[in-house]
Design goal:
The complex is a heterodimer of chains A (245) and B (439). With 245 residues, chain A is α/β, with parallel strands linked by helices. Chain A is built from 7 helices and 12 strands. Chain A is 34% helix and 29% strand. Chain A has a 6-stranded mixed sheet, sandwiched between helices. Chain A has a 4-stranded antiparallel sheet with strand order 2-1-4-5. In chain A, strands 7-8 form a two-stranded antiparallel ribbon. In chain A, a hairpin with a 2-residue loop joins strand 4 and strand 5. Classes of the chains: A alpha/beta (245), B alpha/beta (439).
Chain lengths: 245, 439
């Protein structure tokens, strides 16, 4: 599904990714772990198309389509979704209106009419229930005054609504207590299918107790230095990142 | 231009049907003398530091109403009226009242013309009591308007009257031979316990240069409620100098909502005088400009009695090379204890060449008050843009949505639903998108 080949990227003059190779198949969950500054967030931002980062070498393709030439919104329409470590507050736009705008933007590209209101409301109700979020939450301004847990749950709710092929969860566990972590992980697990794939970017092993990965990659200084099964995460937790450097 | 105006004044006086010994005539003559002394404002005056009218005075303005090239048709101007609701209308074309486009009344209230109030004996007492009582005697352009006062809207709502339909005051300028300077004068008196909504608009249909130097006086008696909306979305050749003076008695609530979307130079001076206790003054504004447009908002709130409040919220979006000024003054006199004054001015600059000069100014002489003010100037949030694009919203729509959300807090305060729709439409048109959502 997603193929990353020899990816090099920099921000300003600083090279952060120094040759990433990664192949992800439909139905798989890949965890990317690594210490601060290893390039985890850069990797997710580059896949999503953040323009501050410059790709100097290599390629990223989704189902054979080159992603690097596409604008962030075009990548989203092809099925790329990134759950933000720090979701942005947009006062004045409700959660419902935001998701409606996003869904209809994609439908427009696909040559479809706007989703009928009744259908949209039904979908919102179902997904909100699935993720375990309160309906009153949907009429609040997007991420405005949300707690850390609410923000992350809102990200997963949007993921549920947009039904991406390739979801990247960037430090979704940061700032969450254990109950919120379980809720978010449960939401992600319910959305997993044989047709989509998930990249879980995390610092700590604990999220992986709940979202169990098929593969664990260790990122260090812009390169994947070790790849293994879910047991690698436990080993890392016990031995620390110094072990793989 | 100043000399031309002075010379024209005599001709103007002789042309009118006014008896030259009336009180009204004396007010005009005094105002003219005052104008001769003060003249036009220059950039040396602190409040005019960022707005120069110099280029306007190079235009060869005609000072008297000209005959329009052709009779105006309803279909030409239909789009400038509020649609789908019943309303009173006081409409002027090239400075002359248009009975054809208007819908006025004398039935239990006066929603009519200032010229009637000037010339008819039955309005003498009310004119002497209110006319020119709130307007500035020291601002050059206001005294100029006073000197040339002849026409405008006259509204007098007697006590205990809640108007069920809004009043639209519209000034059209049509294609004339020459550039034109119009000086409309509005007088609005709302008596005890009465409520009214008013929408004012100036619209040029001409390619000639148009300058409106308009003065409005509003008197809110005890417990009166007035919502006043100004729609400023004029052509690139049209400039507007709007001076509005409001006097409020006990427990009255007056809001003035200024929507500045365009024109060449727009200068809004809004002055609230709180003359009673438990008064509430509300000032809302949206300024949204592009090209080389310029809008200058000067707001003054004079807290002169205890236990009153004022709430001010102005939002500005400046694109291309447009420029803005926000000068928000709040004066709290020593007697005005327990004043609650709030002021907020937020601005977004979309380009490096756009600019805003923002200056909150609070002068507080009372000690038991709650006054706060805030001012922000920033760019569009890049993080928010990327976030929205990541969710599949195209860049242009994402920008528009962010900007619309920015203005929404003010749009939401509009209490006439069709006007709210109209303002939303103008905003989405300016943003170049169809905002298919109801935020």
């Amino acid at each position: 599904m997603l193929k990353i080949k020899n990816l090099h990227a920099k921000i300003g003059d600083k090279e952060i990714l120094k040759g990433i190779n990664l192949t992800i198949k439909a139905g798989e969950v890949h965890a990317i772990m690594g210490p601060n500054g290893s390039g985890k967030t850069t990797l997710s931002s580059v896949i999503a198309g953040r323009e501050d980062y410059k790709v100097t070498e290599g390629s990223i393709s989704l189902y054979g389509d080159d992603l690097l030439d596409l604008a962030p919104e075009d990548r989203a329409h092809k099925g790329v979704f990134m759950s933000f470590q720090y979701p942005v507050a947009i006062p004045g736009v409700t959660v419902t209106n935001f998701i409606k705008t996003a869904i209809n933007a994609k439908r427009k590209v696909e040559g479809k009419d706007d989703m009928p209101a009744a259908e949209l409301l039904k979908m919102i109700r179902e997904k909100a229930k699935l993720i375990g979020i309160d309906r009153s939450f949907l009429s609040r301004s997007l991420n405005d005054g949300f707690s850390g847990g609410e923000k992350k749950r809102n990200e997963i709710f949007q993921m549920a609504m947009l039904e991406p092929k390739m979801a990247i969860l960037d430090e979704t566990d940061s700032g969450l207590d254990i109950d919120a972590l379980k809720t978010v992980a449960n939401g992600v697990n319910k959305l997993r299918s044989k047709d989509n794939a998930v990249i879980v970017i995390t610092h700590y092993q604990r999220l992986l107790d709940y979202i169990v990965p098929d593969f664990v990659h260790v990122l260090s200084d812009g390169k994947i230095v070790k790849t293994g099964g879910k047991e690698l995460a436990l080993e890392l937790e016990a031995k620390g990142y110094e072990w793989v450097k | 231009m100043k000399d031309k105006l002075i010379a024209s004044f005599m001709a103007f006086e002789n042309k009118g049907s006014v008896q030259t010994d009336t009180e009204f005539h004396k007010i005009r003559a005094t105002a003219m003398q005052q104008f001769e002394k003060i003249g036009f404002p220059t950039k040396e005056i602190e409040d005019w530091k960022y707005t120069s009218l110099k280029k306007l005075w190079n235009n060869d303005y005609s000072l008297f109403p000209q005959l329009p090239k052709h009779e105006i048709q309803l279909s030409e101007v239909d789009t400038y009226f509020l649609k789908g609701i019943d309303s009173y209308k006081i409409v002027f074309v090239d400075g002359v009242y248009s009975p054809f486009l208007s819908e006025t009344t004398h039935d239990g209230m006066e929603i009519c013309l200032l010229s009637a109030a000037i010339n008819k004996l039955k309005y003498k007492i009310i004119m002497e009591h209110f006319f020119n009582k709130a307007a500035s005697k020291s601002d050059g352009l206001t005294v100029l308007n006073t000197a040339f006062t002849s026409e405008g809207a006259f509204i007098h709502i007697p006590k205990n009257t809640v108007l069920q339909k809004p009043i639209q005051i519209i000034y059209f300028t049509t294609e004339c031979e020459k550039d034109v300077l119009l000086q409309p004068r509005n007088l609005i008196i709302v008596d005890e316990n009465s409520q009214v909504q008013i929408v004012e608009r100036h619209q040029s249909l001409s390619n000639k240069n148009v300058l409106n130097n308009t003065v409005t006086e509003i008197f809110a008696n005890k417990r009166a409620h007035i919502d006043y909306y100004k729609i400023q979305n004029d052509t690139k050749n049209a400039s507007l100098i709007d001076s509005t003076f409001i006097e409020q008695k006990d427990q009255s609530v007056v809001s003035v909502n200024t929507f500045s979307f365009g024109g060449d130079i727009t200068r809004n001076t809004l002055s609230f005088y709180q003359k009673g206790e438990h008064v509430s003054s509300i000032l809302n504004g949206i300024t949204m400009l592009d090209g080389t447009q310029h809008v200058d908002n000067q707001t003054n709130v004079f807290h002169q009695q205890p236990n009153c409040e004022s709430h001010e919220l102005y939002k500005g979006i400046y694109d291309e090379q447009s420029t803005g000024v926000f000068n928000g003054k709040v004066f709290v006199e020593q007697i005005a204890q327990k004043t609650d004054a709030f002021q907020q001015n937020d601005n977004i600059l979309l380009t490096d060449k756009a600019s805003i000069n923002a200056k909150p100014q609070l002068e507080i002489f009372a000690d038991d008050v709650a006054c706060s003010h805030g001012c922000t100037i920033g760019q569009l949030d890049e993080n928010a843009l990327f976030y929205m694009r990541q969710r599949g919203i195209p860049e242009k729509e994402a920008k528009a949505l962010l900007l619309y959300a920015f203005t929404n807090e003010v749009v939401d305060k509009i209490r006439i639903p069709v006007l709210k729709t109209l303002i939303t439409k103008i905003i989405s048109h300016k943003l170049g998108v169809e905002l298919g959502i109801d935020l």
